[in-house]
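Late entry, written up from scratch paper. The run itself happened at the end of the previous shift, but nothing got recorded in the book at the time, so transcribing now.
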Amino acid sequence: MSAITLNAKASTTFAAKLAHTQALLQQAALEFARDAGATSPALTLACSLGAEDMVLAHLVNALAIDADIFVLETGMLHTQTLALLAQLQATSTAPVKVYRPDAQAAAGFVAREGEKAMYNSIELRKACCQIRKMEPLERALTGKKAWITGLRREQSGTRAAVPDLDRSDAKRAKLNPLADWTWGDVWHYIASNAVAYNPLHDEFYPSIGCAPCTRAIAMGEDFRAGRWWWESEAAKECGLHVSPHSSLAPTQANFAASEVKGGTPGRSQNSELKECGLHVGKTQQSESSALAVPAQANLLAEQVKGGTPGRSQSEVAQAHVAAGDVKPEGRAEAKTLNKEAA
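Output as recorded:
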């Protein structure tokens, strides 16, 4: 079953949400317009090539918003993601810029720590994210007045109060035009506008990152359950969306040994902290009227059991690799999917 067939169910207020999103983008284009004589836009879209960001890329192009689009090509993306990147570059009227990690830093890390270092400790995984995501992100945002993201309040507890416009960072504003969209709204837009999307979504990957750190999810798991699945929820940050003043900031990465042990089987230890780190704001000064929207991150109400209490998360990750649940390119088999959705 395709992701469109499974998920494309618009909310009753979708038309109003779409109009609001379009207005936000158009207003941002005016407020964060490029300076006279500037050769590039002052507004940029951070595109992970996930479903939400492909919707936003389509809107930026359809509305002729004066913004460019950037992608962090970490060197560890799935082949399907790279193919979608090439398609976006070929079809987008807005410029698409690709930022890659420093080749020497990335090669040096692998030489010192090994290709599977991210499974061995939280500190090593965060060090990898720093090289492959954080440093390129800083380059991508240099000189920008504002950036656009695909954050939605429904994605996780941490994101439940995401504002439409976040001005808490003195360097630049962050615009979240899909903040009040549901997962069904996203896929309704994709279906209605023939938006290209990552085929991994058809294989039960709602959230897609680097290949070694992403797996498919089973019915009932959180949207982001397939990201860094071997870690406790409190550790799941790469730093991309964590502000310097946030308690989740990647610089505060000293976790006790107990924090990398498995907790309740099959469930996150703290779903509210399930983040890659990119999108956790400071005080999140909101220009939205309704922020306290509860997270609805389950695909189904049914809980999916799994995991092995007491085993270290690196052991669990290596067991997945050894068992073939996680393939060399980082993909996973969703072995417990409901047959009706298969």
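The chain has one domain: 3-323.
(Scratch paper discarded after transcription.)
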